[in-house]
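Record format v2
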Amino acid sequence: MSRAALLVLADGRFPAGGHAHSGGAEAAVRAGRITDAASLEAFCRGRLYTSGVVAACVAAAAALGVDPGELDRAADARTPSPALRVTARRLGRQLMRAARSTWPSAELDALAALFPKGAHQPVVLGLAARAAGLGALDAAHCSLYEGVSGPATAVVRLLGLDPFDATAVLARLSAEMDRVAQEAMETGERVVTDGVDVLPARSAPLLEIGAEAHAAWAVRLFAS
Amino acid sequence: MDRVTTTAGGVRASARVLARGDGRGGTVLPVLEGEGPLAVRRTRGSGAEARVMLVGAMSGPLGGDHFTVAAHAAAGARLRVGSAAATLALPGQDKTGARYDVRITVDDDAELSWLPEQLISAGGSDLHVTTSVELAAGARLLLREEQVLGRAGEEPGRLTSRLTVRIDGRCVLDQELACGPGAPGGWDGPAGLAGHRAVGQLVVVRPAFATGPPAARVFEEGAAVLPLVGPAVLVTAVAPDALRLRRLLDGALASLD
């Protein structure tokens, strides 16, 4: 693996459109559930162990070459909120565009042809990692980091939270992210032999409900 | 006839219901059997529908217990399954936790309503529930699950509940809720339950949803109507307590018609 390629893919400035999304933080701020660094940390931790770990396992499995169509269907079944499915596909399409020009690959071309409106973002992320010469653990790390850094960055704008405090939240989560990434890689390896049913399905009720509420707002700062 | 098997760990028990159309617009129950803590009774139905009640004959599940309930609605059946009381997960001698597995099968031209009372996760308990639903393309389903975290004023136990729905072989819903002490971090935080102590799901499957699915929307505060990829809808809801949760789910269900 190339450590530099991992940094390119994980960089918040990689032009994949993630900066326009808050990962549910905008809805949680509006509902008064995120008010400071401590509640941001609890929010990020909740995401990490629910939709975060599911996405990381999908990304790891895709990086290991599991059939992307099957992974995409498994992601659909684990994303009951239509608003979150739309977001996942939109982010997948944007990542696809960036990844194809950064690391041209026949596999990415084939996935783009199969899903013209976008595949679930973690599926694309896993194949982008493959195209960049990265492995399943790298794909899982990218996915998990993105899943918590998005809300942390968004809350700086939404609440005027001190950026140092927001970054400290991410630093405090890093040991857990390392552990979950390792588990996600191992799950990805099991998917190769046992199929997509072994993917985790952990859900966070308020992320689902909040996403639908947010999608219906007339005015919002973030797309999701 | 007592076929309850008690292992060193706890009680293993199962119940089985099979319903099918009688060919004259009614529903018969060729199989209706339970054991030990899982008794099943036929109660008065209405019209074409047969009603079955799960009656808890013992407390539990306790740590170490493993219960399995299987319900199958075959062609022509209209089956409604309820429970006489809430299920209370309690701590046991066995530290391995308890398991409760529900297997639901609905064939073409059959309908199953699975409407048990709440599952209450008492302090110190550790229960793993799986609900696995297999539906034919033309099956109809109404399924309700409600989890209540702790009795009044009590800290909850550990509860893991996984719900999987397949229609015509395709998985349309796979979700797991994990909460209580020892659950992965953040379960009660702003992304998880945020202090709500009752959480519930309704799954409604109707072949007509394939062409005219309900619109996604938030229902009051605390519930959302979520059309799935397939002729199915999930209503997910959180509430401060069991009573308000039931009201939310009932209201959201009525709004689908």
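Helices of chain B lie at 242-254.
Chain B touches chain A through 37 residues (CB under 8 Å).
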